[in-house]
Amino acid sequence: MKMENLTSSSENSQVTLASPNQYKVYSRRWFLLATLFVLSLSNAMAWLTFAPVAYKAAEFYTDPPNTDTINWLSVVFMITGIPCGIVATWLIDTVGLRFSVILSAWLNGIGCVIRVISAIDGIAPSAKLPLVFIGQIIAAFAQPFVLFAPTKLSALWFKEDQRAISNMLATTANPLGIMVTNIISPILATKPSDMLYMLAIQCIPAGVGVIMATFGWWSSLPPSPPSSSADAESQPFLVGLKALARNRQYYLLAWAIGGGIALFSVLTTLLSQILCPWGYTDTYVGVACGSALIGAGFVGSAIAGVFVDKTKRFTEVTKVCYALAVVALVVFAVMHNKPYQWVLLACMCGLFGFFGIPIYPIGNELAVETTYPVGEATSSGIVFMSGQLQGIVLVLLLQSIGADLKQPPSTNKCTSENLGNIPVQDMSVPVYIMVGYAALIALVYIIFFRTAYKRLHAERHGSGSEESSENDIDNAVYTQGNQTDQIEKL
């Protein structure tokens, strides 16, 4: 198959000839990508605002202080992600990106404002907790939209060799937002009375996202499509769901990639509570471990995104990343309850992020390849909803089996004289269970997952002029199965 790229001095005149049709890309796609980046970053900050300062938030919002209640501020994002995810997939694939993105921006902005109101001094103490939950739930309604939209945006606005990196940039804004909140929440909230200041500062990106989406997102589609697959009609929503139900490999993919999302959610939600009994402060957890986790994940995602854009090795990359991420988790589990392991634990968080975070954006692209021509938001959305469901079960299960420490170690950093008598838990058994589940997913996925890259195959054969020998090469590169034999034939 032969494709010609004709490039002029202006990006808007860049076209690709894959058939008699001309496909174009537009510079405006980068602004749309930046809008999704800001929205996803802000929404992630809202999701895990309280996790790095769980004990301080418990003192401010609950009486008596209760960290389980504060954990629910994160869990509501996972719960609402399932029913809202169904609505989001339908709206994005049926109504369009523009309406969906603007709606998500306003939901996120309104939710963040209500959270600020919950911390104002004049609010009755009995109203603070209900208000912060209302704001958290409204912001949570936006999460499926901002997480499902990147795959659709990449498919409709970006060329074939830019889709993975585009998806990576928009998707990894979510863990980047988690990194930001892990850093700034402990800095802004040094004591329970600092909640208002912390929430007000974290509301700023949400306002920027509202402005960018409302005044900058003019249309769902570009004037001309960037590729033959973008020019084709996706299957109707219900037809797409039926196609997914018949795709056995997609079941395995949704479980495995969703499991990766769940493991990341659990670790970021409970990390402070896991480490604080053994002498690790909120600042260390947020700044050292959180920054290492997300910063390394961003670097790893960038490298993986560029690599798969060039090689199309989606399956191989996700399998290698899964295996190495689990190795990092195993070392973390063995060493987390030993004091004075600051460097090692931060390094393990960094390795988990470097290999674990790329699984989600690359997995989204793999979901589209596995299910094409099902709508992009539908195939990637169900992967995310699988992750939310697994995350809910894991968070509730793991926090319920933590053992109360009657005599916390002398190094304990979970409480201080300002925080009252909040029970401190040993989360060692929950951590071991989490790692065991991660190893199970990785093993099954590595051994059993095989798929054909249907979207790439359709694009490569769109012109109908390929020789049979070239078809064999395409099938060898883009079809998984007897992988070793096929690669040797190349």
Description:
The protein is built from 20 helices and five strands. It is mostly helical. The strands form two sheets. The chain has a three-stranded antiparallel β-sheet with strand order 1-2-3, with no helix packed on it. The protein has a two-stranded antiparallel sheet with strand order 4-5. β1 and β2 form a beta hairpin. It is globular. The chain starts with a strand and ends with a helix.
In terms of DSSP E residues, the strand content is: under 5%
Spatial sequence of strands, sheet with the most strands: 1-2-3
Outline the biggest β-sheet.
3 strands, antiparallel
Structural class: mainly alpha
Low-confidence stretches: 1-20, 416-420, 463-490
Radius of gyration: 23 Å
Number of helices: 20
Order of helices and strands: EEEHHHHHHHHHHHHHHHHEEHHHH
Helix-residue proportion = over 70%
Q: Could you give the count of β-strands?
A: 5
User: For the terminal residues, how far apart are their CA atoms?
Assistant: 15 Å
Output mean pLDDT. Answer: 82
Shape: globular
Give me the secondary-structure topology:
Blueprint: E1 4-6, E2 15-17, E3 22-24, H1 28-47, H2 54-61, H3 67-95, H4 97-118, H5 125-157, H6 163-171, H7 173-188, H8 195-216, H9 228-231, H10 237-245, H11 248-275, H12 282-311, H13 314-335, H14 342-356, H15 359-371, H16 376-400, E4 403-404, E5 425-426, H17 428-448, H18 454-460, H19 468-478, H20 483-489
Antiparallel strand pairs: 1-2, 2-3, 4-5
Helix pairs in contact: 1-4, 1-5, 1-6, 1-7, 1-8, 2-3, 3-4, 3-5, 3-16, 4-5, 4-8, 5-6, 5-16, 6-12, 6-15, 7-8, 7-12, 11-12, 11-15, 11-16, 11-17, 12-14, 13-14, 13-15, 13-17, 15-16, 16-17, 19-20
